[in-house]
Write a structure and sequence with these properties.
Layout lengths: L2 H12 L19 E8 L10 H15 L3 E4 L11 H8 L4 E4 L12 H8 L6 E5 L2 E5 L18 H11 L6 E4 L15 H14 L4 E6 L6 E5 L2 E5 L5 E3 L12 H6 L6 E3 L6 E6 L4 E5 L10 H4 L17 E4 L5
Parallel strand pairs: 1-2, 2-3, 5-6, 6-7, 7-9
Antiparallel strand pairs: 1-12, 4-5, 8-9, 10-11, 12-13, 13-14
Length: 330
């Protein structure tokens, strides 16, 4: 089915307005000349959403228009099944460099981390990449060894040693990408987040500014915080908030869409896809995050009966704009 025909079908099924790549967003609004600019998208959940192809397609087109140096998907992208080849073709249609991160749901159905990494075109489960005066470091937060039930969220001693070596490799500052956040130990964070932070903080003390930021997804929240001189950015899902309270589940799409996608009843979807553009200004003095805003499809989670401790400024259909100083931070 051709892209336009598929989009028209989904518009009819979803019965909600669609904001495509042709609508001008804020991604071109970063102030000053960029020394580095990249796009980041998290938690698309192609295997849950009926319009994952359209969401990723809008991101790809917007990033090409913004002229970013590279793009990163932060995991929970899709399982490595043949049905998702078309989804990956849209992602791979980005004409620049593309980097992937493993999310816990990318191995749903019994797939291995190696299978998912290969499907995404990742060189390894963890790896580094070059970005001019900057570097990228991708971590795998799905390693065995922790005590948490359910999905693994752990970083092994071997990977911690590798991270330490990567940060000490040269003097260039690095952006660290990982699916599960490491700014805590609970609520979905990496189980041994303190051990990861210790490596990052040690490197930051010894070489101030070597860790530009740690960027994660997973929790479908929007926030930024600093711990021990290291900045942590949580990138909201491109698609939805998962409803934890069973009583909050309800059908907000058409009956046909819910028949084809039964998990949608547990989703408070975002009407438009979310993503962010991260810009380092010329000279490396500032870090700018330019996000997007949307609205809920149907009632918001609290109206549905959701009971969570997250405040509305963190649990909302948007990614906030942020500005941070970079040079000498630490």
């Amino acid at each position: 089915m051709k892209g336009g025909t598929r989009r028209e079908m989904l518009r009819s099924l979803l019965a909600v307005p669609w904001v495509g790549a042709g609508v001008e967003g804020k991604e071109g609004a970063a102030e000053g000349k960029a020394e580095l600019r990249f796009g980041v998208i998290a938690d698309v959940h192609q295997d849950v959403m009926p319009d994952g192809v359209e969401r990723v397609g809008a991101f790809v087109r917007a990033m090409e228009e913004a002229g970013v140096d590279f793009v990163v998907q932060l995991g929970d992208f899709c399982v490595p099944h043949e049905r998702n080849r078309g989804f990956m073709e849209v992602w791979n249609g980005f004409k620049g460099k593309r980097y992937g991160v493993l999310g816990n749901h990318d191995m749903d159905g019994g797939y291995t981390r190696e299978q998912a990494a290969a499907f995404f075109g990742m060189p390894e489960r963890r790896y580094g990449f070059e970005a001019g005066k900057w570097r990228g470091i991708v971590l795998d937060g799905n390693e065995p060894g922790g005590k948490a039930r359910g999905y693994a969220r752990y970083v092994s001693e071997g990977q911690l040693k590798w991270l330490e070596e990567q940060l000490a490799a040269d003097g260039r500052p690095a952006f660290v990408f990982i699916h599960q956040p490491v700014d805590g130990e609970n609520d979905g964070c990496v189980e041994n987040g303190a051990a990861v932070r210790a490596v990052l903080e040690k490197a930051q003390r010894e070489r101030p500014g070597v860790v530009a930021a740690v960027i994660s997804g997973h929790r479908h929240l929007d926030y930024a915080r600093e711990i021990g001189g290291v900045r942590y950015l949580e990138i909201n899902s491109a698609s939805y908030w998962w409803l934890n309270a069973k009583a909050a589940a309800r059908e907000t799409f058409s009956a046909e869409v819910h028949r084809r996608h039964p998990s949608l009843k547990s989703v408070a979807a975002y009407r438009d896809p979310l993503w962010a553009v991260v810009t380092v200004t010329e000279g490396g003095s500032e870090l700018l995050v330019t996000g997007r805003s949307s609205e809920w499809v149907g009632p918001d989670p609290w109206e549905r009966g959701e009971t969570v401790r997250w405040p509305r400024e963190e649990l909302h259909p948007g990614i906030g704009d942020r500005r941070f100083e970079l040079r000498g931070k630490g």
